[in-house]
Amino acid sequence: MNDFFERVSSLLTSEDFEIFKNEYNKPAYRGVRVNTLKCEADKFLSFAEGISEDDTTPFCKEGFYISDDCDLGGNHPLHHAGAIYFQEPSAMSAVSLLGVKKGDAVLDLCAAPGGKSTQIASALAGTGLLWSNEIVKNRANILLSNIERCGVSNAVVSSTDPDTLCSALEGVFDKVLVDAPCSGEGMFRRDSAVYDEWTPEHSDACSVRQLKILESAKKALRAGGILVYSTCTFSKAENEDVIAKFLEANPDFELLESGENFGRPSLDGKSVRIYPMDGGEGHFGAKLLKKDSEWGGSRTDSRLTPADERKIPAVVKEFFEDTFINTDFAKRLFLHLDNVFILPELCPEIKGAGVIRAGVFAGTVKKSYFEPHHALFMSAHKDNIKRVVDLKLDDSRVKNFLHGEEISVEENIKGYTAVCVEGITVGFGKVSGGMLKNKYPKGLRTL
Fold it and tell me: DSSP letter at 324?
């Protein structure tokens, strides 16, 4: 660790550096963020043993510290239901810096595995547009899985290189997040393998790629929009130096004060640095404004128009009318081959942008019927579904359902039915004769 500590020593006072080194004798922070698309923080706290408001992180009001003996994990029903997302606490800071508002069009350019994208989606609350991109295809599929699990209905997920994407979507977004690939110095306490791969030369090389990504990202941002650049590293070369070089080459951008109370001022005096002694493993965030230009500060709204109503088979319309109370979203149905999607209200042209999913995969048209997909029910609220089986957390049927088994339900229920845990949709099945035939995806089932 000597080379690493030597680099960090130049960033801190001698007193703070000693505190920093001592932090590496302690365990890493663990955190969980409540997905408010599915569950409010107060409701989560009523279920989560050993977690209280006192455990709220300074980086996000829906984020909480969790201890090693916490019973929350990947097999917990609330995780399966998409009500929570496990996330390193300081990683929540970047989206807080971004200041997402309802109705915004937001691009998360380096989005996998999806922590920041799902945090953005919570802030959008089903409005506007979230475009999540990941250049590595297998990581993009993980991103898509988390988007679906968290019930995000207004997202486009793509897998392409940043320059191709941002050139195709020039001026479309109000907010852009670049959580850049970095040397990962803020992950050393969590993952020793990251440290084993670290070298000073690797850190310096990362800064070249990061600047290139920023140069691409600027194209997608409207004049008057906000771009947040973040990393999970302490390296000056990857943080302040990248921002300084970008600003020198782009005088139409301005570095803003963070406006946040967490962490500590960065070396440039306006950005934010978070060290382990600040309550997180390590993060850097810079907030940039794209100044108004001669064409004004509005996004390119002609690229963001509601989807046209498509010609949809009668069996699909009948399914939606039979299953949901409010079917206004059916105006945005899109048929591709035999697959039906519910497009976001704002959906730009997606051809040539490496899109792997736009909106919600609703299901597949068969010869004489419509077969719904898991993602459709995960994006639906209990109050908008006509047939619901709502189970308590301690109901043995919850474990059985997540295991893929049939479960018993009320005799008067018949047809496609949502399964909820404490009012939070976790999946669906088809009911007949008091038994629910399980439709929980095999790849997600517990062992």
Answer: B
Would you state the pLDDT for residue 297?
57
- Least confident piece of the model among 188-192, 280-284, 416-420: 188-192
* Helix segments in 2-157, DSSP class H: 2-9, 14-23, 41-47, 77-80, 93-98, 115-124, 137-149
Closest CA to 418 of 376, 447, 366, 359: 376
Average pLDDT for 148-155: 98
With contact defined as beta carbons under 8 Å apart, do 362 and 333 qualify? yes
Name the pTM for this structure.
0.95
- Active site residue ranges: 232
Q: How far, in Å, are 25, 26, 123, 246 from residue 189 at the CA level?
A: 9, 8, 30, 30
Residue showing tokens 């790849």: 443
Structure tokens at 390: 């709502």
Which is it for the CA torsion 130, 237, 218, 137, positive or negative? negative
Tell me which residue has tokens 């206004």: 328
| pLDDT (0 to 100) of residue 300 | 58
- Higher-pLDDT residue of 137 and 346 is 137
Give per-residue pLDDT as tens, 193-245. 887 888 888 888 999 999 999 999 999 999 999 999 999 999 999 999 999 99
| DSSP output for 170-211 | TT-EEEEEEE-----GGGTTT-HHHHHT--HHHHHHHHHHHH
- In 3D, which of 324, 361, 387, 378 has the Cα closest to residue 83? 378
Distance from C-alpha of 385 to C-alpha of 370, rounded to nearest angstrom = 17
DSSP 40: -
Q: Which long-range contacts does 142-145 make (Cβ < 8 Å, 24+ apart)?
A: 142/112, 142/113, 142/114, 143/111, 143/112, 143/113, 143/114, 143/117, 144/356, 144/357, 145/114
Give the span between the Cα atoms of 251 and 28, in whole angstroms: 39
CB 219 within 8 A of CB 172: no
Q: How many CB atoms neighbour CB 51 within 10 A?
A: 18
Residue 183 contacts residue 235 (beta carbons within 8 Å): yes
Give Dmax over CA atoms of the chain in angstroms.
73
